[in-house]
Amino acid sequence: MLSRIRRTAVLATAAGLLALAPGASTAAAASSSRSQAPAITLSVGAHGVPRSLKQGQTIAMVVWYRQNSGLPMLADDFAVSMWNSAAPGNKPNKGVTVSWQSPVTGAWQKPTSVDDNGTWNWYPPLGGRQVVVPSNYWAHINVRITFSGSAYKGRWYINPEPACAYALIAKDGSQIAPPIHVSWPLYTFTLNR
């Protein structure tokens, strides 16, 4: 306890001395002028993940997300990361298919990209209507995940990641991308034969 108090006193003294250094107030003012974009917190949740599933079945998951920036958000990338510790090396994708229902058109979409580590991404097509979410609005995207007979059995982990790429739309129409604070949820289930 005493060492924590001493450490706090030393840090406070050092901070006070740094504030007296020439140019310290100028640097602080320049830093605050660069950070004009509001901070974002992205809240994420999902439902529809069962405790267990059999090979050949499909998970119909609804992923909910909300941001609180005060500005509309353009969501450019939706992802689902999944892994199974029984899968050897970089082969968690074996026997798994994923599709997203576009919030704009309602049509089911195949992944735009799939990596060997078990992340399936869908990017809304450029040039069409984009996914724009108002501030403090709970938006959602529907995801279907099918496990064929060749998918690895055992414990699976699912991490839904809506709006992995995003931009806020400022009042003048420009796009800004400030830092985002998010805790991605993690869901588990068991895949049986």
Please characterize this protein's 3D structure.
This protein is α+β, with helices and mostly antiparallel strands and 193 residues long. It has two domains: 32 residues; 153 residues, Immunoglobulin-like, CATH 2.60.40.2550. It has two helices and 14 strands, in the order ααββββββββββββββ. Strands 2, 4, 7, 8, 9, 11, 12 and 14 form an eight-stranded mixed beta sheet that branches. A six-stranded mixed beta sheet has the order 6-5-10-3-1-13, with no helix packed on it. β5 and β6 form a beta hairpin. It is elongated, with a radius of gyration of 22 Å.
Can you describe this structure in just a few lines?
This protein is an alpha+beta fold and 193 residues long. It is 16% helix and 45% strand. The longest helix is centred in the first third of the chain and has 19 residues.
Topology:
Elements: H1 2-20, H2 24-34, E1 40-47, E2 52-54, E3 58-67, E4 73-84, E5 96-101, E6 108-109, E7 113-114, E8 119-122, E9 131-133, E10 139-147, E11 154-169, E12 175-176, E13 180-182, E14 187-192
Parallel strand pairs: 1-13, 2-14
Antiparallel strand pairs: 1-3, 3-10, 4-8, 4-9, 4-11, 5-6, 5-10, 7-8, 11-12, 11-14
